[in-house]
């Protein structure tokens, strides 16, 4: 019962509260921000107000939220003097426009500048404050909490990540946002960021320019360090894609953010130490490079070639930190140098007394001069009091460093772009039309279309993506004699030019680390010289490879060739495999030893045959010459002479005529020779038959029949040769396959049937002759010629039987030599076996050269 009463009391209280709220809303609606209001750090009223978002502090104190109490505002730390310079550049542009009579005459520009502390959440919050204001507004109950934008355009921010967040929020309101330093290529996507514009080129071009710069120096094996935000991640992504197209490999790609714990950055340092690449591409903003530089100096990590993005390349603070010469010789990109007259004086004329006691300005001033405006209990007793009139010109702080003038110029151009758009919308001539409707969308559309020239002569316009023309200076770090880093411009990159002309460098101005003129080397594998090809190493990037020598008959005549090209059939690779040279033509020539020996043997055989013929002619009337038909003997000697001479047709460079002549001459002369031997053998047999009682066989095989038989046997071979030459004759042929590095000049057979028909016919006659001579070897004549013919035919057949496998297996010119050897061997066999014994009797045993001795009727031997 008690519990139910308690619930009834709670229910009645809630009902009363809802009733009060309903009655209040019936009278009026109060519009206010749900969170604490954000106040601008710098502001000034005007007819038209411009917003500014800058990271006057680069970090904030971390704290643990309990989720029980409302979170407190961020406590910002780490003053950024350069961000105050950017704000001063915006103030300078606004003041200059307000003082002009030709641009927005009679209209004053005001400003509201907020500090984002580098926080994305705070950036979104201040962007909404710029769009809606912070005031509490009461509206009738039937009205929505909506009103016109408080600012007509927003200048900033420096970081790409912050600009992405802000553009996403204010994009639907079409409020123009013009950044001077956000370079992420992703911001060019107008479907996602329709109201974003910038006066600095997109990282799409910077990343491609860095890749081309790395390629220019032959660095194909590099490491990459990026900021873990949209600027670094997108920039390195485009760099990696372009690098792969140019044949550049990344050994590693690591990221960090300046608020990361030191142990994470230490791991990056350890990775650099163990890596083999000597070139590091650092795609970092100055704030992250500042943190990395501290760690590099701590570990004294020298000996590396740094390639930098425009985020830190011309930052004098980074250069001052490099006491250990870690970044000496660094090369990278920068926005082209610029000069805005009057801006340096304006920034140096900055005084806290001009800022209406702003707390942030006082904080800056105290940090610049190490003083305090008001002494407090926590302040040091000896710390001097700030007057607000201290001289900035005598400081060595980064606040007075004008090396970032190109970025100041970007801020300046952004403000002027909005001013020119407003000038067009308001129809300004001598005066402006105050009745013209101003809304962010109209200002955005007109800002995109502006095209004007600044007082310094710079053209300002935006392309369809809201980006300016992409031009970069190539900056090289060179340390002077007094140890100060000099940012030397050594080249230019212009994306509007053709691809092969975009990058221009003056190599004579380059001085690398330790004042070396030699370009540092960073490759995974040395270049493969001509004569070799690249073979990728398994499991490694394409830049890591082995150089394999080209195979025989293949060449590569360029460096880093991926393939070897096979030479044309008539060419062969040289020793270095880098050029194709004409193959040496190989044939059996008269000049070489083997050819000369065979020629000498052929001529010797010819001379020997001629001597035998002379002897036989001289003793032609003697019985031993007249025996067995001297006419056939002389014809045989003539044919043997032709056989010896036909071997010469096989020596020398083959030609169409020599190819046809060598085989046909060989076939016909040997058939003529064998036909004569066959005729002599048949004469022996017939003579024996005729000596038998009652035999009349010699009348059927007399001299006429002998001549006709020789002619008939020879004509058959002539017919075979004519058919061979008619149907498919031998022809000169270049043999590329037998010996790889030589051309074998040989005679192709044409018709193999014709060739083997010629040889077969010779073999048939030789076999028939051998059989007949073998049968007549034991006839009772004192001088039986059949014995010598049998032995000569045995030699002949043995030579040609062994010729066939030797001919088939012999390479190149040796096959020709084998064929010549067979011709000479068989010719010498016939000459020596048939005629030398007779010459021996004629010259040395004339007493046996009698008819009685030939007929076996000489005196009997005595014992």
Which terms would index this structure?
863 residues, alpha/beta, Rossmann fold, 4 domains, 6-stranded mixed β-sheet, 22 helices, 29 strands, 15% strand, disordered N terminus, disordered C terminus
What this model shows, in words?
There is one protein chain. With 863 residues, this protein is of the alpha/beta class. It folds into four domains: 42-61 and 75-135 and 147-201 and 340-351 and 401-461, Response regulator (Rossmann fold); 203-334 and 480-515, Response regulator (Rossmann fold), CATH 3.40.50; 532-582, no CATH class; 593-854, Up-down Bundle (Rhopdopsin 7-helix transmembrane proteins), CATH 1.20.1070. Helix content is 43%, strand content 15%. An eight-stranded mixed β-sheet has the order 12-11-13-14-15-18-19-20, sandwiched between helices. A six-stranded mixed β-sheet has the order 2-6-3-8-9-10. The chain has a three-stranded mixed β-sheet with strand order 27-29-28. Strand 16 (451-453) and strand 17 (459-461) form a beta hairpin. Helix 2 runs parallel beside helix 12 (405-425) and helix 12 (405-425) packs across helix 13. The longest helix has 35 residues, at 656-690. The chain is rod-shaped, with a radius of gyration of 54 Å. Residues 1-28 and 857-863 have low confidence and may be disordered.
Number of strands: 29
CATH architectural group of the largest domain: Up-down Bundle
CATH structural fold name of the largest domain: Rhopdopsin 7-helix transmembrane proteins
Strand order of the largest sheet: 12-11-13-14-15-18-19-20
Strand pairing plus helix content: what structural class?
alpha/beta
What are the low-pLDDT stretches, counting only 5+ consecutive residues below 50? 1-28, 857-863
Class of the largest domain in CATH?
Mainly Alpha
Radius of gyration: 54 Å
Helix content: 40-55%
Distance between the termini: 173 Å
**Any idea what the shape is?**
rod-shaped
Approximately what portion of the residues adopt beta-strand conformation?
Answer: 15-25%
Total helical elements: 22
Q: What is the number of domains?
A: 4
The CATH superfamily name of the largest domain is Rhodopsin 7-helix transmembrane proteins
- Mean residue pLDDT: 83
Tell me the major beta sheet. Answer: 8 strands, mixed
């Amino acid at each position: 019962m008690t519990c139910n009463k308690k619930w009834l009391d709670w229910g009645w209280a809630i009902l009363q509260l809802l009733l009060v709220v309903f009655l209040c809303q019936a009278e009026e609606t109060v519009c206010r921000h749900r969170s604490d209001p954000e106040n601008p750090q710098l502001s000034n009223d005007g007819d038209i107000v411009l917003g500014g978002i800058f990271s006057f502090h680069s970090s904030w104190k971390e704290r643990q939220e309990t989720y029980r109490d409302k979170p407190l505002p961020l406590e910002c730390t780490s003053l950024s003097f350069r961000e105050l310079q950017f704000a001063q550049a915006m103030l300078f542009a606004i003041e200059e426009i307000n003082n002009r009579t030709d641009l927005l005459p009679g209209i004053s520009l005001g400003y509201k500048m907020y500090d984002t502390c580098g926080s994305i959440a705070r950036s979104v919050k201040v962007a909404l404050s710029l769009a809606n204001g912070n005031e509490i507004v009461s509206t009738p109950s039937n009205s929505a909490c909506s009103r016109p934008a408080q600012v007509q355009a927003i200048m900033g921010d420096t970081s790409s990540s912050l600009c992405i967040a802000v553009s996403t929020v204010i994009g639907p309101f079409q409020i123009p946002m013009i950044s001077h330093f956000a370079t992420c290529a992703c911001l060019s996507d107008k479907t996602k960021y329709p109201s974003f514009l910038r006066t600095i080129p997109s990282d799409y071009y910077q990343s491609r320019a860095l890749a081309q710069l790395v390629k220019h120096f032959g660095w194909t094996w590099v490491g990459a360090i990026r900021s873990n935000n949209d600027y670094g991640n997108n920039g390195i992504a485009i760099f990696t894609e372009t690098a792969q197209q140019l044949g550049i490999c990344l050994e590693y790609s690591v990221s960090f953010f300046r608020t990361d714990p030191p142990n994470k950055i230490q791991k990056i340092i350890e990775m650099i130490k163990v890596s083999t690449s000597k070139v590091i591409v650092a795609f970092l903003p100055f704030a992250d490079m500042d943190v990395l530089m501290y760690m590099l100096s701590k570990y004294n990590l020298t000996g590396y070639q740094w390639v930098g993005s425009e985020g830190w390349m011309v930052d004098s603070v980074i250069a001052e930190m490099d006491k250990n010469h870690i970044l000496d010789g660094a090369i990278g990109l920068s926005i082209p140098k610029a000069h805005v007259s009057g801006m340096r004086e304006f920034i140096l004329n900055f005084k806290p007394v001009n800022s209406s006691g702003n707390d942030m300005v006082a904080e800056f001033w105290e940090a610049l001069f190490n003083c305090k405006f008001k002494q407090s209990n926590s302040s040091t007793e000896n710390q001097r009091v700030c007057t607000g009139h201290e001289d900035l010109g005598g400081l060595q702080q980064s606040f007075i460093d004008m090396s970032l003038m190109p970025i100041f110029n970007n801020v300046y151009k952004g403000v002027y772009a909005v001013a020119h758009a407003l000038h067009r919308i308001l129809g300004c001539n001598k005066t402006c039309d105050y009745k013209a409707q101003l809304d962010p969308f109209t200002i955005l559309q007109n800002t995109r279309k502006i095209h004007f020239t600044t007082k310094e002569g710079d053209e300002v316009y935006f392309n369809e993506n809201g980006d300016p023309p992409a031009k970069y200076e190539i900056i090289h770090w060179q340390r002077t004699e007094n140890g100060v880093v000099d940012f030397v411009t050594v080249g230019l990159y212009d994306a509007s030019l053709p691809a092969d002309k975009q990058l221009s460098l003056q190599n004579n101005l380059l001085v690398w680390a330790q004042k070396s003129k030699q370009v540092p080397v960073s490759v995974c594998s040395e270049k493969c010289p001509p004569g070799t090809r690249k073979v990728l190493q398994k499991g490694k990037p394409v830049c890591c490879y082995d150089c394999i020598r080209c195979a025989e008959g293949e060449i590569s005549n360029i460096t880093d060739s991926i393939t070897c090209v096979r030479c044309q059939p008539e060419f062969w690779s040289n020793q270095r495999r880098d050029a194709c040279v004409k193959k040496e033509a190989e044939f059996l020539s008269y000049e070489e030893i083997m050819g000369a020996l065979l020629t000498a043997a052929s001529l010797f055989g010819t001379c020997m045959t001629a001597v035998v013929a002379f002897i036989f002619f001289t003793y032609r009337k003697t019985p031993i010459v007249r025996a067995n038909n001297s006419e056939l003997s002389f014809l045989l000697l003539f044919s043997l002479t032709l056989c010896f001479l036909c071997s010469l047709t096989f020596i020398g460079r083959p030609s169409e005529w020599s190819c046809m002549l060598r085989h046909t001459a060989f076939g016909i002369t040997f058939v003529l020779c064998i036909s004569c031997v066959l005729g002599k053998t048949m004469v022996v047999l017939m003579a024996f038959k005729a000596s038998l009682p009652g035999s009349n066989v010699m009348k059927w095989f007399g001299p006429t029949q002998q001549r006709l038989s020789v002619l008939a046997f020879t004509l058959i071979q002539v017919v075979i040769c004519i058919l061979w030459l008619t149907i498919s004759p031998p022809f000169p042929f270049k043999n590329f396959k037998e010996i790889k590095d030589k051309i074998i000049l040989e005679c192709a057979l044409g018709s193999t049937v014709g060739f083997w028909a010629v040889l077969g016919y010779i073999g048939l006659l030789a076999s028939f002759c051998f059989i007949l001579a073998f049968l007549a070897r034991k006839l009772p004549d004192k001088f039986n010629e059949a014995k010598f013919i049998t032995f000569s035919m045995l030699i002949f057949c043995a030579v040609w039987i062994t010729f066939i496998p030797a001919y088939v297996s012999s390479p190149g010119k040796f096959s020709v030599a084998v064929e010549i050897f067979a011709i000479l061997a068989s010719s010498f066999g016939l000459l020596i076996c048939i005629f030398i014994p007779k010459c021996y009797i004629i010259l040395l045993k004339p007493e046996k050269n009698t008819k009685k001795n030939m007929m076996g009727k000489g005196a009997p031997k005595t014992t």
